Amino acid sequence: MTTSTDLDTYVDPDDLNNNTSDNPSFDAVLDARLSRRNILRGSVGTAAAAVFGSLGASALGLADEAAAAPREKLLSFNPVAKSLADSVVVPAGYTASVLYALGDPLTASTPAYKNDGTDGDFEHRAGDHHDGMEWFGLDANGKPSATSTTRGLLAVNHEATTDEKLSSFFIHANGGTSTLPRPAAEVEKELAIHGVAVVEVHRKSGKSGKGAKWEYLKDSAFNTRLTTLTEIEIAGPARGNPLLVTKYSPNGTKTRGTLNNCGTGKTPWGTFLTGEENWAGYFTRPKGDDAARDGNKSVTALARYGRAEGASSRHGWETGGSEDKFARWINAKTGTSADGRDDYRNEMNGMGYIVEIDAYDKRTLARKRTGLGRFAHESAAFGKVVPGQPVAVYQGDDSRNEYIYKWVSSARWDAADANPANRLATGDKYLDEGKLYVAKFNADGSGQWIELSVTSPALSGYAKYPFADQADVAVNTRLAGDAVGATKMDRPEWCSVNPANGEIYYSLTNNSNRRVEPSGSSQTAPDSANPRAYSDIKGASRVQTGNVNGHILRMKEGAAGSAATSFTWDVYLFGAEASAAPGPVNLSNLTGEQDFSSPDGLAFSPSTGICWIQTDDSAYTDVTNCMLLAGLPGQVGDGRKVTLNYPKADGGGLTVDTYVGKAPTPDKLKRFLVGPADCEITGLCETPDGKAMFVNIQHPGETTSQANVTNPAKYTSQWPANVGYGAGKRPRSATIVITKNDGGRIGS
Ligand code: FEO
Ligand code: CA
Ligand code: CA
Description:
This protein is mainly beta. 7% of the residues lie in helices and 28% in strands.
């Protein structure tokens, strides 16, 4: 997301960098020569990218369209052109309709949304910034169903809010208060628009799906909200650990709320996983707290997670009053206890997890699965489960130069658990005991999963941060990744597993700190798995540097499958503008019907096997709004090895080998949707028949100025009001539903 277009001063909350661990730093002065679009930093031309034959191109015997049904050709739709229109554009023959938008009532007695900033009671309304989303089917009797295609629950992340200078301005009548202190009433609204919603939806008409229309049910007994104040259990190795002791939970077993919920997962036992991403920015930490903590190791941990002393908070919620619900956002030692039971010095340790929610049961408390680690979580993607084998969960940490992780359960998969009597207890079985690994990528196309065990020499001997126990590793996962020398990645966003062959795909959205000649500890040089550093012109002259357009990495596990500790990898697609010549930037040879920047959401369809790619971009947005593409990928090793030669200022050079997947022909990758102005496209799930697809449109109009909040003519988007959805003209994040007019599967 972006809240400003000034690239000189703006820091995207999704684009943080707190990793100052000891990567190579050449402290070189950067060459500032920049004269045309899409040149590599320095003077590398197309010819400098030498191509050295193919990488293990031996076929795995897996057809590209293995999951496709007979009599149906996938990706037969006409691709959608790039667009700057303030509307959702889908191919001919498809219909996109708004289903569930910010502020929509979730109980029968909640009034309709006026959308003028006067609405309240957001605990009973749709939250803001719809993000990751999963489908949970219901049968005609309202019981969980894996096969229902006409009735179900959508579990929806409400990640954040459109803000400028503290205030979530579209939900306050006059734009709200941009100075501290923030009024309690404004803070209370903002506390409630974050979190998660469960909302019932059903297909209301359309025989055989033709002309199908969907609606959400505002009076469904299943509807519920989790907000920043909802009580949640701490589960896994950190439950009851001293690191989780707070005034709210002196025994360290509970916390309040889930926050900045971004990517999602759906467990093989039918529950919802939500990833807490940029939670740290909501906490403040006053100057003097380092000394108050006697400089103990918590100071190191707080800095590694972006809260050095003096850090201010995104919204100033801590200034709403003296009550606990406000004061808890001050992450400081203010009490006299030895363990923190009289203050909120440890409060931030309660955020940053994968949280498991039973979407069918709103009475049972959700559980934070601490074993899966604490970082800026995106999605949690399950490897294909095999009876008798451990369960693997793939995850990424979305900040610049952070890591890729895998959880491997101690319990072995029992097929009977696909339909358990107690879903969250099944989660206890697979998500509380196991091993956490971090990825290291090698220049020869191989890689290792390195276990993060407190007893390993790398961790037990780590001088920078003495880990006390495995709970400490679970809470301070980033430091553990540093200790074992994990590979710094270009912002790992969503991951998803290809149902055709089990390969794991990761969006690496972009990295403005990737530099051929890094300066300072926050920048890193290109490496094989993150091989590009270049410059791009946006609009008339603004220059963006680093891995501007991002890429999609994929991994194939070794022979041990989910429990493997080695893998091979290549890059499925490099994002690029089609006008960038095939070569060092447009390495995947993308055409105008396929080109994209900043892949973010990523989800394989269980029905069609299509790889759906969503963008959250601020680089190519002078040419097009964010988009959704459909891909039919091959497999790791189907492309070629490429060597990139980067000149350096001193006359030397940097040579980087990388592995590029087979370039997508026009029938293997097509743009399917372009969204309204100033939005990102995110969240994607389908009915099990693949005939209804739900997609989230996040933050249309987000670069609107707070000063213009009462002047609709100045909004950068008026979607979805401009398609007749709801009152008012303020833009609203929303879920859309896409159907094919002939009743066919989406993407055919
Ligand atoms: Fe919320 Fe990293 O996207
Ligand atoms: Ca450009
Ligand atoms: Ca994202």
